[in-house]
Design brief:
The protein has helices at residues 4-15, 20-27, 31-44, 53-59, 62-70, 75-85, 91-100, 103-106, 162-176, 204-212, 229-243, 251-265, 277-285, 370-373, 379-392, 394-406, 411-420, 427-439, 445-453, 468-471, and strands at residues 118-130, 136-146, 152-157, 182-185, 192-194, 201-202, 216-219, 302-306, 312-315, 318-321, 330-335, 339-344, 347-353, 361-362. Helix content is 43%, strand content 16%. By secondary structure, it is α+β, with helices and mostly antiparallel strands.
Length: 472
């Protein structure tokens, strides 16, 4: 059977006035075959090769095949359903037909919405651009498109943080002077924490934004980009028709040009609606949008921070601890004049009084991992040494307290040395040595060791002078 490419070649040569004999030599196809193709074209105007009989049968069932595949039925189930409808094509022919016509990837459902019902939102990567400070940074284009009128709002940003995402929404709502009832979005981290189809978990601040503006959030199903195809087209349109081939002096120039272009773009004839988006918006859609609240959503009370390796986040040039298991994670801060509350995935994980100065560390030692807390300066470490010295005897414990008072920064060094003496001496004689040391104001591990090494712990105590016992 002649393939489509060869079939087209034969007809092209024929249309150029080349004889059948010459076509046969060029295409290396028998003249009888060429004669049939040309006769078919002259009589019926057909420019494609004939479809096999089995395919011809399925061609009559094309719409039914598409509908069954849209229900996510397997090829076997599609074949069974077609048979029940009266189609007698074989399963092998069905598979061949579906693959040949690429039905699965070419077929999609068009989603139509009522005026004011839906807006679709997304970020698009636009490469490196100059930011307001003149630095060349990775940039993104934000697009909110009203699904009915295709009225667009665009904004260039330099990150995909929650604050940026939310501020873009606020600016879009103000641009539209109204709020759609539903926001259709992809599963961006700035908006969706868990893309569960049955019960998606929204980013806390983003959900508060939706509540403030009285609109609903509707994430797309995973791997179903056609569900927000309108905003995908909007991103593609701004890349091809605004950013492509244009030069910008700086960020201000780029923003100014975008504003001018956006007004023109919203006055073009849209390829699908065959109407100008702005005119369709003003005449049919705007009246169905929800009213803007009296005040914009206040982002000043919310911030997003990444937890550093030292288990702290920064806010207003001060540092606040967060439990160690959240190191490297993004957390949300709810801040007021007195408190800072830290949230992770909608759950509060830390609470601190807000510091008034600069460079101040507010640390809850319990936020460090347990292994790290067994080191000097942590209550767990201090309590462990105190418990050991108490077990060794009352004078050992008294010496620990004395050392903490006289050497607050490194008292633990002498204490650990005294505890190590247990390797060679019993607790009773170490306790006696500590008693003698206390009487003479000894604060040195070496002197306690010397008392033990020289068997001085049982010698009578003479004038204690300014020792601990004398001052007591």
């Amino acid at each position: 059977m002649i393939g489509t490419c060869m079939y087209t070649t034969i007809l092209t040569l024929y249309k150029q006035g080349i004889s059948q004999r010459q076509i046969s030599k060029i295409a290396k196809v028998h003249r009888a075959t060429i004669k049939k193709i040309i006769a078919r074209y002259d009589k019926e105007g057909i420019e494609e090769p004939s479809i096999k009989s089995s395919s011809s049968k399925l061609l009559n069932w094309h719409q039914q095949i598409v509908m069954l595949l849209e229900k996510n039925l397997s090829y076997i189930r599609v074949h069974e359903e077609l048979k029940s409808m009266g189609c007698d094509a074989s399963y092998t022919s069905l598979r061949r037909y579906i693959n040949k016509h690429n039905i699965i990837s070419k077929t999609c459902i068009r989603f139509n919405t009522d005026p004011g019902l839906e807006a679709q939102v997304d970020f698009g990567d636009i490469g490196k651009r100059y930011d307001p400070e003149g630095k060349l940074r990775k940039a993104y284009i934000f697009n909110m498109r009203l699904s009915y009128s295709r009225f667009d709002y665009y904004e260039i940003v330099f990150d995909q943080k929650v604050e940026t995402w939310i501020n873009c929404h606020i600016n879009a709502f103000n641009y539209f002077a109204g709020v759609p009832r539903v926001i259709k979005l992809d599963n961006l981290k700035a908006g969706i924490i868990d893309a569960n189809f049955h019960e998606p978990l929204y980013q806390r601040v983003y959900k508060m934004l939706a509540d403030h503006y009285d609109c609903s959030l509707s994430p797309c199903r995973p791997y179903q980009p056609q569900e927000k195809g309108k905003v995908e087209s909007g991103i593609k349109y701004v890349k091809n028709n605004f950013l492509a081939g244009r030069e910008f002096i700086n960020h201000a120039d780029m923003t100014k040009q975008l504003d001018v272009w956006m007004e023109k773009a919203n006055m073009r004839i849209h390829g699908t609606t065959r109407a100008k988006p702005k005119e369709l918006f003003e005449s049919e859609e705007h009246k169905f949008l929800g009213k803007l609240p009296l005040l914009d959503f206040d982002m000043a009370t919310w911030s997003c921070r990444k937890v550093a390796k030292d288990c702290h986040i920064t806010f207003d040039n001060n540092y606040y601890s967060v439990p160690s298991k959240y190191v490297g994670a993004d957390v949300d801060l709810l801040v007021d004049a007195k408190l800072i509350k830290v949230f992770y995935k909608d759950q509060q994980v830390a609470l601190h009084a807000r510091s008034k100065g600069k460079g101040i560390f507010t640390t809850n030692n319990c936020h460090y991992p347990k292994s790290a807390r067994y080191s000097p300066g942590f209550a767990e470490y201090d309590e462990k040494l105190e418990s050991i010295m108490q077990d060794m005897g009352p004078n050992c414990l008294m010496l620990l307290k004395y050392l903490q008072k006289t050497k607050p920064l490194d008292w633990w060094r002498a204490v650990k040395g005294i505890i190590k003496l247990r390797e060679n001496y019993g607790d009773d004689v170490i306790d006696k040595a500590c008693h003698r040391g206390l009487c003479y104001g000894v604060t040195s591990y070496r002197k306690i060791k010397s008392i033990l090494d020289n068997n001085c712990y049982d010698l009578p105590i003479h004038d204690a002078g300014d020792g601990y016992a004398g001052r007591a």
